[in-house]
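New to this. Explain these tokens.
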Amino acid sequence: MEAQEKYREWIGRELHDNINQLLVVSNMYLKNIKPAAGANAEYAGKSININNQAINEIRKLSWSLVPPTLNDIGLKESIENLVLQMSMDKLQIEFNIDIDESTMQEGLKINIYRIVQEQMNNIIKHSHATNAIISMNQYDNLVRLLINDNGKVFDIKQKVTGIGLMNIMRRAEIYDAK
């Protein structure tokens, strides 16, 4: 999992620091073109809009790949930021987090964050829910994470074929979680 996190972080940084910067420079050149007439002005404007969309998508992708520095902003705030990013008009997300992060290992915090991230992606992609609740409580050395939604039911007896759910199970197994 640590190697996977490092690889994700590398990809996220490359997208942000390399490809995104190329698009920003391209936008600067497009904006400095002398005002053109007719179709050329329209094409330049469309190009700038497309570049801006690509920049925004790369920023979102980079943000999802690079784990937050959980020691700096904390797990709770990282999940809050994730919820804000993923909240949509059609999906309202409520969360209640009561944990003592000072007693948690950095690896555990990253794994919990990734599990929440994957579950939220699954809710958005598959469940078509309108409400979701993230609840996390800590009892001594035990952390209880519950994520519920009011969307379509997932049959746990179904064979798991998606990599996301398998990654969640692997992340949980590392810490003897169920």
Notes: The chain is about 60% helix and 15% strand. The chain has two domains: 2-65, 70-174. Residues 70-174 form a domain with the Heat Shock Protein 90 fold (CATH 3.30.565.10).
